[in-house]
Amino acid sequence: FRRxxxxxxxxxxxxxxxxxTLLEETPQDTAYNTKRGIVASILVFLCFGVTQAKDGPFSxxxxxxxxxxxxxxxxxxxxxxxxxxxxxxxxRQFMKYIDPHLGVPLPERDYGGNCLIYxxxxxxDPFHNIWDKLDGFVPAxxxxxxxxxxxxxxxxxxxxxxxxxxxxxYSLEHQLPNFxxxxxxxxxxxxxxxxxxxxxxxxxxxxxxxxxTYKWQGLWNIPTYKGKMKRIVFQFTPYxxxxxxxxxxxxxxxxxxxxxxxxxxxxxxxNTFYLKFVLWMPxxxxxxxxRLVFFVNVGGVAMREIYDFMDDPKFHKKLGQQAxxxxxxxxxxxxxxxxxxxxxxxxxLPFYITQCWILGIILVLTWTAWRFFVRDITLRYKEIxxxxxxxxxxxxxxxxxGDGHSSILDEQNGNKLRERKL
Length: 422
Hints:
Layout: H1 2-23, H2 30-52, H3 63-84, H4 88-94, H5 128-133, H6 137-152, H7 155-172, H8 183-211, H9 225-234, H10 252-278, H11 286-311, H12 321-340, H13 342-345, H14 351-401, H15 405-421
Helix pairs in contact: 1-2, 2-3, 3-11, 3-12, 6-8, 6-11, 7-8, 7-10, 10-11, 10-12, 11-12, 14-15
Subcellular location: Endoplasmic reticulum membrane
Main location: endoplasmic reticulum
Protein name: Phosphatidylserine synthase
């Protein structure tokens, strides 16, 4: 039935597109016809994927909604591959086919400079530095971290990613002027106010969702109109709730997985700034906003698939399709940045920043080796030593009491069995 429904929809859509092209006279503009043909092809593919693609872990508001974003992921990845195989000049000028205002070099805005919170030299407005920083990106920071918290569902991971990105901005401000900010812009406005408040509200929302009763009833079985409206609103909430317990220190596998998640998150954040820099897109352009909306929808599914794969590998034997696509998209975006502007990326880090990063990496590697190798060996040695001491004590006790030899052998066999298991 599902395949027949798909073929019917595709047939109707193809006939409608063909009917439209037959009714109107085909323009002689090659660029316009090319764009129209590409858009029609994408629509047909999305229609096929929405009905035929594999369902993901989410079923609200409808599985077709998440299948749609899966297909959008494929289209976006193909677009990135196409841009990757163009020359730098052709790739930037190709953006003009999407928006004629693109393809023009843009000056980067520097948020640093005068970092005085109170500027006594400006008598009319001594707090002008604060008002200059309060642009449209302030609410974007808040809502962005609110949604990221809903995806990650862990306070510590969100705070680590938030703080680590500020360190990355400090480290890379010699490459992109956009990263240059005042100290209070980094830590007060971003980490504490915008990011911190977004994380706090996200955790409160997660707490409410975890306490909510998930008992669904059909819309037509609800007698009151108020109940029907409430049921319609709750359709946009999860069908059931799964609390994420990452437990990064529980095993080496989970620790490496959590580090990989943090790395991909930070790389995707950096790609936002570097892509608009190399492709000459202004920060307020709608394509930048659409990319963020795209990652909000596909990121939640990817995080759920990663957690299911880590938490229950026997049932989820392979990583989900959306998680693989998000990883591929992030890697492809980074490759575009490397190809389009290798000079900016190869600007050497200041010596003191290099020292800080080397020290941080050494500390992380040292803790990893101690926690999952040295500590485990030490605990195993102490456990074996304790068991030998208990065995010796029981043996001496049995001999002093004149007990039989069989009980001693049984105790020895039991201790040997426990040592082998350990």
